[in-house]
Amino acid sequence: MIKNKINKYSLLIGIILLMMACKTPAITGKQANSSTPAVYTHSQDTVNVANIKWASYFKDPYLVALIDTALQNNQELNITLQEIEISKNEVMARKGEYLPFLNLGAGAARVKEGKYTWNGLSEEDLKTNPDKAPKYFGDFMAGANFSWELDVWKKLHNAKKAAAIRYLSTVEGKNFLVTNLIAEIASSYYELMGLDNLLLIVQQNIELQKNALQLVKLEKEAAKVTQLAVNRFEAQLLNTQNLQYEIQQKIVEAENKINFLTGRYPKHIPRNTADFNNLINDPIFAGVPSQLLANRPDIRQAELELAAAKVDVAVAKANFYPSVSLKAGLGFQAYNPLYLIRPESILYNLGGELVAPLINKNAIKASYFTANAKQIQSVYHFEQSILNAHIEVVNQLSSMENFTRSYETKAREVDILTQSVVISNNLFRSARADYIEVLSTQREALDSKIELIEIKMKQLEAKVNIYKALGGGWN
User: Fold this and answer.
1) Which domain range does residue 350 map to?
2) Tell me: the pLDDT tens digits for 139-159?
3) Which of 100, 213, 253, 381 is disulfide-compatible with 148, CB 3.0–4.6 A?
């Protein structure tokens, strides 16, 4: 009777302790807000250029070839692909944790016991009675061990689920890298074409200024101008000649940047320089902001990281609960290897284990609170990625509109100043304008042509950036 009461009390105490172990502290999570404005400020189309393949969006065959090479050879992209493989292996490892483990083993040992131990005394007795002594003093074993942690609280399954979600997140990270890589090569290619045209304009102006310098020298010989005029024209020529060296250096750096992105050593980059000024921006259809959630890889990556963080909270919570495991073993053991095959040498064990944290759960609580904080952090990161994407699109739509107008205005200015150069030269020959007006007009014409090329470069960069901002390129 007393023994039964003790067993009942022991069971009751065990249940109470188990309930105490399972108690989890309260936390406050956060829900993500994925809402977006209905339309963009500068666009109200439902068609989205992000769905266009990059080879169709960038129609220049030289540029298409460069992008295709980069997608195969770019080292950073290949590094990211290996990170995806690492994440895939992590999923495999997590999956193996909740499956049973079966290990095969064998061992042999020669043991010399101390003389003044029970086993040592037994050895001494066997030595005094050689007829009873076995041929071997040792320990020989062969068998299999089985262990399995029962995933009662889905802790191991959730850990595998979180790893699988993060694997998908690395894939989206790769897609985002592809989008950025395509955009960077396209921007560098257009920059290179722009620099070629800048160099051409500078070289053309050098020839014009050489002719103007010869004219001024003739005017000096005719005593119509002084040496000051000659010096001013020659100084302007030298200044323009100096510009070409800076542009040539920029061309070298732009070419090598593209070579680096395509994973190759420096070489000439073929390009359609003559078509630069004829490149016309096609109409851009930005769609609606809600499409960013599906098209932008960085948003989808942040969303997957948020999903994984939520699962991590469940994994951390499961650490408060008892873990249940089963263990078993079957094999043969004997001091003589010849006895291993005898039925009497069979050994086996079977057991179960229930373990729950009871006192000093600070480490478990800390992991739980950290997982919850990371989940909240992931919510903010997800919302930030949506906001950032929307602002990028609005900025680039505005940029395209403003630079298109700016290019049209600057082109008219270039035409007027180009005419002014001819007029000023004619007036100077007829002594109706002084050399200062000629110099000023030449300088203004050159500056305006350089600015026109720079505006065209910004216009093309906006074309690249809007495609990138909308999430195009990776698909």
Assistant:
1) 101-150+322-355
2) 778 888 878 777 777 777 888
3) 100
